[in-house]
Design brief:
The chain is mainly beta. The protein has no helices and four strands. Strands 2-1-3-4 form a four-stranded antiparallel sheet, with no helix packed on it.
Length: 100
C-alpha cells in the first residue's frame, strides 16, 4: 500500500500502479484508480538463489497511470530481501525517492 501520493494532474487524483524488479525478473501491480492512498492485495513470486538472497534487493517504482501519453513518475525505492525473508514479516514504510 501507499499513502499520501503526490498529485501530478489538475484533477487531483492518482491512478497508481507499481513496477517491481528483482534481478532480471519484473512484475507490475494492477492500477488502483482515483486515490492517493492505494492498497494492492497482490502477491508476486520471484525465484532467487539462496546464496544471492543477502545481496539482492526488490526495487519498486510507483507510477500514476495515464490513458494517453507517458505515465507520471511518482517515486522509487528498494528493499533488501533479507528484510522480507523468514517467518516474521516486517511492517514499515519506505519513503519514495526521486529518480536516481
Amino acid at each position: 500500500q501507499a499513502r499520501d501520493l503526490a498529485v501530478k494532474e489538475k484533477a487531483g487524483i492518482v491512478d497508481a500502479f507499481v513496477e517491481l524488479t528483482v534481478q532480471e525478473d519484473k512484475a507490475k501491480t494492477q492500477v488502483v484508480k482515483r486515490t492517493r492512498f492505494p492498497k494492492w492485495k497482490e502477491t508476486f513470486d520471484f525465484t532467487i538463489p539462496t546464496k544471492l538472497l543477502e545481496t539482492t534487493t526488490l526495487q519498486f517504482t510507483v507510477w500514476d497511470w495515464e490513458k494517453q501519453g507517458n505515465h507520471d513518475f511518482l517515486g522509487q525505492g528498494d528493499v533488501v530481501l533479507t528484510e522480507l525473508h523468514g517467518e516474521e514479516h516486517i511492517v514499515g514504510w519506505h519513503r519514495l525517492c526521486p529518480r536516481a
